[in-house]
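// run 5 | inverse folding | seed 20
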């Protein structure tokens, strides 16, 4: 009798499981068809759109619409940068490599973006340099060009396009305000500021800056980070102490600055291109005193991301370049790796939630239900991350839109109802 009941319970359990699978499959098909119908309306017909939605618990793909096609990802590239930094950086950012010879400190930068940065204001190098009679600083250990491949040349004076460097200072930007009286950081550049009604904010290849005579709160303008400027900045900070040199003994020790997660969170929250670029450079410092964002990307593509079903074309850390090509499916794979490798609380803390940062105008609610990275270039908008359904399930999605002529806000307004539908019905 016991054996009979046991067999019956097993049968019921299997039957219930089969019914559940069939119901779930039918529901997914229904959602997929509804989403596809929305994506084939007149609004989307003159642009290129892709969407993948994946359930990491059930391993089900709920929506696959052009998911294996290549798109310009814009700042969704920062997802690959985030993944790299989480794999290769310790709990705190390596600030610089150094060796001490009597009363002289020899230093090579690691690309740490936090030193005197307008947001982080880290002073690790300043405090340590002050303890020595002489500091000899090597600046030529970055293999990459100051600009990334495919960056728009006419963005040289835009706040979102600072130069890359081995030893950043002040976020590689000058900060200007003239609300009350003219304020400038770094202060030694105040005599380089000029009133102008021109839209150009800086001379092309020199540190001469232009700002309008009308009052404004703050303006960030990228610096030309040459050795002359860096020597002048250190002369202002520690007069007569820091020398720029080309050769130094082998660096054997590393100093550390701010918590790594604080830099990652800032990069993701405001989509900071400078932080993204420098994080790849800092990651490469783990392997060599010779810094290379290019080498770091190749390292990750050959190892941690070698299993991506569609190999991306990944040319920078920020997504400023239109040479980048990723598929929605490959971004979902990267997001799935992050989901499987990090505690949920830490992972979601690194992403903008609906209603904050780059998502401040969308997906807001009493309880966050979208944690995602947006990406914007002219005529391109992408959004990839995590969607929490009304039933509490976590879905991973990548929604990519390229080549539209409409206003980006209009594209966002079309995307949100589609994701809301999936949230309510899955």
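// decoded
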């Amino acid at each position: 009798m016991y054996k009979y009941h046991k067999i019956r319970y097993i049968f019921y359990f299997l039957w219930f499981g089969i019914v559940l699978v069939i119901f779930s499959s039918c529901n997914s098909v229904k959602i997929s068809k509804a989403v596809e119908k929305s994506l084939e309306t007149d609004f989307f017909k003159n642009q290129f759109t892709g969407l993948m939605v994946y359930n990491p618990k059930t391993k089900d793909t709920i929506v696959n619409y052009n998911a294996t096609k290549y798109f310009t990802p814009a700042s969704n590239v920062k997802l690959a940068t985030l993944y790299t930094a989480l794999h290769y950086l310790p709990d705190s950012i390596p600030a610089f490599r150094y060796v001490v010879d009597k009363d002289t400190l020899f230093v090579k930068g690691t690309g740490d973006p936090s030193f005197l940065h307008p947001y982080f204001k880290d002073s690790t190098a300043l405090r340590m340099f002050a303890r020595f009679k002489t500091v000899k600083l090597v600046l030529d250990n970055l293999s990459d060009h100051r600009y990334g491949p495919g960056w728009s040349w006419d963005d040289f004076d835009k706040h979102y396009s600072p130069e890359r460097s081995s030893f950043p200072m002040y976020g590689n930007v000058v900060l200007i305000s003239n609300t009350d009286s003219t304020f400038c950081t770094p202060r030694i550049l105040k005599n380089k500021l000029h009133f102008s009604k021109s839209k150009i904010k800086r001379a092309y290849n020199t540190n001469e800056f232009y700002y309008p005579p009308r009052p404004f709160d703050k303006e960030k303008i990228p610096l030309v980070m040459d050795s002359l400027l860096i020597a002048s900045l250190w002369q202002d900070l520690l007069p007569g102490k820091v020398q720029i040199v080309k050769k130094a003994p082998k660096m054997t020790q590393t100093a550390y600055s701010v918590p790594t997660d604080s830099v990652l969170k800032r990069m993701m929250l405001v989509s900071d291109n400078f932080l993204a670029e420098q994080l790849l450079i800092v990651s490469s410092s783990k392997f060599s005193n010779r810094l290379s964002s290019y080498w770091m990307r190749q390292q990750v593509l050959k190892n941690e991301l070698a299993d991506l079903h569609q190999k991306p074309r990944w040319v920078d850390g920020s997504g400023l370049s239109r040479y980048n090509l990723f598929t929605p499916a490959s971004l979902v794979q990267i997001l799935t790796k992050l989901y499987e490798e990090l505690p949920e609380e830490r992972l979601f803390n690194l992403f903008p939630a609906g209603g904050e940062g780059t998502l401040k105008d969308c997906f807001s609610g009493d309880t966050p239900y979208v944690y995602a990275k947006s990406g914007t270039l002219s005529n391109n908008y992408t959004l990839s991350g995590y969607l929490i359904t009304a039933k509490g399930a976590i879905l991973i999605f990548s929604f990519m839109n390229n080549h539209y002529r409409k206003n980006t806000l209009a594209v966002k307004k079309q995307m949100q109802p589609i994701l809301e539908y999936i949230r309510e019905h899955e």
